[in-house]
Amino acid sequence: MPLPSRKKLHLGKTPMKFYFRAQDISVNLDGIDVEGSLVLVWKRGTRRTASEPFPIVEELSAVDGSLSRTAATTQDMAQICTMFKSSKGAFEPKLSKVSLVVEPPAGGAGRGGKAEQGKKLGSTTLDLGAYASVDMTSHPVELSFLDGKASVTMTLASHWLKNLAAGGPSDDGSSVASFCTDADSDAGSEASERSELEERSAPARSNSIKSAVRAAGAFGGMRRSRANTSAAAASGLEERSAPPGCSGLGGGG
Fold first, then answer.
1. Burial track 139-155 (b if 16+ CB lie within 10 A, e otherwise)
2. Neighbour tally for 227: CB within 10 Å
3. Which segments carry the region annotation Disordered (predicted)?
4. Cβ pair 36, 105 in contact under 8 A
């Protein structure tokens, strides 16, 4: 029996574009013996966004001698996705996945002397549909990992982008706002602008050089030597004014 299409699943429901932002992120690791740094990964569909590594801090209690491990980051993380609201005002579930990854201490080496890779501690789900609202809202959220041995607390802000047309089912699962993707897009725009600038300036440089050559031909003897010197200087100026290469504009995927 064929499965119903996504369009049929959302039949009679209103698509609405939403912006979700996770902020004030902190992690409790009291039940895990781990060191290094943490990376928080937030994924929906095929796209993901990840935080920069933030350090795990150990603290020994002066009262009972217990050891606590925590980590916190001031970096915010965001997603943009299409939510579907029923005629009764309820939003469909929209599941996303949150994962904790441990990055080893700087200089750590694994087998064969190679740099040690990050290790996933665990994952859990976060239903964005439970936090969607036509009003701008902000809710405290606590996520549990590894049967309660680790937990993540954050503030999840929700905002309906009423002036942004919802993409409907086609963008479902691929609307995570990725910082790396944004950087790639900016880099591509910059490279395009540089290319256009180079094309516009090339004819002007060519005409300038031709004028210098014609002027040099009108002189004889010693003045011809001076013209050659001027042409060489113009050539050097052209090389120095050429736009720099875009080899450093690569970005992550």
1. eeeebebeeeebbbebe
2. 18
3. 167-253
4. yes
- For residue 62, the 8-state DSSP code is T
Tokens linked to 241: 């004014």
Token code pair at residue 107? 């200089």
CA distance 230 to 114: 55
**Separation of first and last alpha carbons in the chain:** 37
CB neighbour list of residue 239: distance below 8 Å, 6 or more residues apart: none
* Of residues 169, 143, 6, 161, the one with CA closest to residue 79: 161
Q: How far is CA 55 from CA 29, 34, 86, 101, 148, in A?
A: 12, 11, 43, 12, 21
The pTM of the full predicted model, rounded to 2 decimals, is 0.61
The answer for residues whose C-beta is within 8 angstroms of residue 244's C-beta and 6 or more apart is none
Per-residue pLDDT of the chain (253 residues; tens, 9 = 90+): 554 555 556 777 899 999 999 999 999 998 899 999 999 999 998 879 999 999 999 998 889 888 999 999 999 999 999 999 998 889 999 999 999 999 988 755 554 555 567 899 999 999 999 999 999 999 999 999 999 999 999 999 999 999 887 654 444 443 343 333 333 333 443 444 444 434 444 444 444 444 444 544 443 444 444 444 444 444 443 444 444 443 333 333 3
* Cα 71 from chain centroid (whole Å): 21
For residue 46, give the amino acid letter: T
